[in-house]
């Protein structure tokens, strides 16, 4: 009797998963897991991010016919913060020391016109950083003068752009004198609360990328983590298809080759994947509903160099799936 109950329960779960796209969507994106309060997201300093602008980017997703507002962080590099700590109202003594071997940028290394604009704003008498227009002007002038380049970071599923391990990476990148732009996709963080899709996330990333490139003429480096690696490769494919210049380089941290294989390898599927009808109830419905994240397909559709970072003991995304991302592609570092 107990075995029959377990069997009925197991099959029932699979039927529910196949029948309801909302259940599938939850397991892919997990947007309701560990939500950061919106009021907290709007204060980057609460997460140890000084000299960081919180703002929004709005775009019309014509493919899905929705208006989307994205919550965004723009993190200034440490060399710039140190140079203008007084003007930015930051106690220089509280700033971390520059990593050994990282040179501090000199004024002459900035492009004159770009640097002049940033300097003009930051050295304005009675600079009011609480004024939204001034704040915007200052950070966009900095973005325009991003001599080391800009990292566009695409996070994985769950939570928001302010979760601790993501913030820790921004701090490392800023210490290396990169500017960092990161954001929450739709239904993540404080972005528009609408059902996420793979295509929708790619369109959100495209909107932020176009914002950056409309201001900065310095290199953009695309960094994706976990689910964000699937967004990154799909975005690169879209940019190529649109005939637009893409980022100079792509960094994939803990990537997987496609969602079908990742689902089978995920701890949540440890028991169910042994069932003969697993693909019929789980992977096929997700594929049919557009949850694919086929990095092994998209990575062959652009030419920019790709660097893969993956821990051999990764408990969520198996190392072997990272190796399957591009076995026959020549643009790997």
* Number of E-state strands: 7
> N-to-C SSE series?
HHHEEHHHEHEHEHEHHHEH
The class by helix and strand makeup works out as alpha/beta
Number of helices: 13
What general form does the structure show? elongated
- Oligomeric status of the shown chains? single chain
How far apart the termini lie comes to 56 Å
Strand line-up of the largest beta sheet: 1-2-4-3-5-6-7
Mean pLDDT: 91
Largest sheet: 7 strands, mixed
Radius of gyration: 22 Å
Approximate helicity band: 25-40%
Strand content: 5-15%
Spans where pLDDT lies below 50 across 5 or more residues? none
Give the SSE layout.
Blueprint: H1 2-19, H2 21-29, H3 38-41, E1 52-61, E2 66-75, H4 78-83, H5 112-122, H6 132-144, E3 150-154, H7 164-175, E4 179-183, H8 198-213, E5 220-225, H9 227-242, E6 249-253, H10 259-265, H11 278-288, H12 295-298, E7 306-309, H13 319-323
Parallel strand pairs: 3-4, 3-5, 5-6, 6-7
Antiparallel strand pairs: 1-2, 2-4
Helix pairs in contact: 1-11, 5-6, 8-9, 10-11
